[in-house]
Specification:
Blueprint: H1 2-26, H2 33-45, H3 49-68, H4 79-99, H5 108-131, H6 138-150, H7 154-177, H8 185-214, H9 216-220
Helix pairs in contact: 1-2, 1-4, 1-5, 1-8, 2-3, 2-7, 3-4, 3-6, 5-8, 6-7
Length: 221
């Protein structure tokens, strides 16, 4: 029964993150780090954001293999399944947003609203999907590998990953578009606030989420 709960919450968490990525991409203030590279690729090659998100996630799996070499656990290739599901969810979320033209921000206040909605959604989804302990998103696993391989703290590993991903999106957009499009003030705000919001959720929801997902008796054991 607990496994069914975890699978349902895990699936919902991926959907929540994907909606957050789309809101982030459409706020036009700079995408969150998780969506910066997919957005830069999408804008450069006119490919839908869902496909670009899937490719970006899959590339993170191969980055892990390159960093760990023989120490890589091949069971983690299941992250490719998660990457494909996530890409489909982003694609569906983007289609829904385009179906309802009123969901496209029309002024700076709506852009700011979209930015903060994206931060809340991404942080909530990341928190929930990690609590399920099923398969991490490939992007989350990369900074964990950085931590394991070089002994850098998790917090600093996350910063290194975010800065690297944002930097890569800048390079892509400059090469193919001649300007920076995917990164902006919203990217910086997301880097700062997503982690803080995850910490806030941990403080107020940790016990309830653990009890719901695993049951009080299992936690005691």
């Amino acid at each position: 029964m607990n496994l069914v709960k975890r699978l349902v919450v895990y699936s919902c968490a991926l959907i929540i993150i994907s909606i957050g990525v789309v809101f982030s991409a459409r706020c036009n203030l700079g995408s969150s780090p998780i969506g910066a590279v997919p957005l830069a690729i999408s804008q450069s090659f006119r490919i839908n954001l869902g496909t670009c998100s899937m490719l970006s996630m899959c590339s993170c799996v191969f980055i892990q293999i390159a960093m760990l070499g023989k120490k890589y656990k091949w069971i983690n290739l299941t992250q490719l399944i998660t990457a494909c599901c996530f890409g489909l969810f982003v694609y569906a979320s983007e289609k829904v947003m385009f179906l309802f033209s009123d969901l496209i921000p029309g002024n700076i206040y709506e852009q700011i609203l979209y930015l903060f909605l994206s931060i809340i959604l991404i942080a909530s989804g990341v928190y929930l999907h990690l609590k399920c302990r099923i398969v991490n998103l490939p992007t989350d696993s990369v900074f964990v590998v950085i931590h394991q391989k070089w002994g850098i703290s998790i917090a600093n590993s996350k910063i290194i990953f975010d800065v690297s991903f944002a930097g890569l999106s800048v390079v892509i957009s400059l090469i193919f578009l001649g300007e920076i499009t995917a990164v902006g003030i919203g990217t910086i705000v997301s880097v700062i606030l997503v982690g803080k919001f995850i910490g806030f959720m941990q403080k107020i929801m940790e016990t309830r989420i653990n009890n719901f997902l695993y049951g009080k008796q299992e936690l005691l054991n």
